[in-house]
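Lab notebook page, bench 4
Experiment: in silico fold of construct C2
Operator: M.H.
Input chain length: 336 residues
Purpose: comparison with the prior construct
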Amino acid sequence: MAVGALPTNKDSAANLPEPGKGVRFIAHPMKIFILAPMAGCTDLPFRLLCKEYGADLCYSEMIDSHALVAQKPDCLELLRTNAAEQPVIMQLYGSDPETMGKAAAILSEHPVAGIDINMGCPMEKIVQTGAGAALMKNPRLAEKIITAVCKNSAKPVTVKIRAGWNQHLITAPKIARIAEGAGAQAIAIHARTLSDGFTGPIDHLVIEQTMANVSIPVFANGDITSHEQGQALLKKLGCAGVMIGRAALGAPWIFSEAVNQQPSMAYRIKALLRHLELAETHLGPQPGLSKIRNHAWKYFRGTSTGPAIRRQIDATNTYPELRTYIHTLATQLLQA
């Protein structure tokens, strides 16, 4: 298989690419586990943490194509990466083909393995601009955007989609075919519609129909809350990989087959301490409070003391205060 190519659905799975060399795939006995793109969450420190726990491929937060072309500082911060996290795919969103093409050209100059096009975000402020999941009901515009990105990108292009606009407009198989024809090398499908949001079971049939309609790899996204569930979905569908989003927050061990998926409090606090260490290393000694706070409480989600810990975390007003509380908590938990 040529360098820079992704596997077809007939290939067994993916091999990790060399940093900056684009996504390169060969036959491999295991299918891949992927960290999904999540705004405000999948920054460099969290991606590195998930990588340490076994994620084969990580996606960035979504990047505004207009802001990237304008070289806005806040947007450029989202491009932060390093060799240790490779392969990483950076995700673009927008509704203007020309701007998306320009953004892809800029992103291609950075050390990333590939570029993803966001066609699944259900946020109203994104959908109202014609971007994100709005493209699931606008195949002509979707094709123009994918074509523009592929023509301007020196890296492989993937597309993240939803099942469709609503249950009466299921467009994933059609959009996936269009994406492949325009040059995309992989599809990730969150098998819920825009109107479903994040509720209800994912539609396995739509994933299977999408896989049948293309020869490029398809990654299944949604309803995976443990490593075992991810493996079960891979076995049932035969897709090229599974993509995990919200369930990985506060539980990066979801990417590890070797870790108890309901770990002890001591294990959880150690994982959080490592997250803080990575954040301080890569974002500076005082990372943004709101983002770290939003990550921190999730490490104790589902535990008996989780609600009380969250209240304490939410009550902190500065990063040093948050850090002090977490280290005090760690001392208590690790001595218990």
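Observations: Strands lie at 32-35, 57-64, 88-93, 114-119, 157-166, 169-170, 186-193, 218-221, 241-244. Residues 69 and 106 are 8 Å apart (CA to CA).
Next step: discuss at group meeting.
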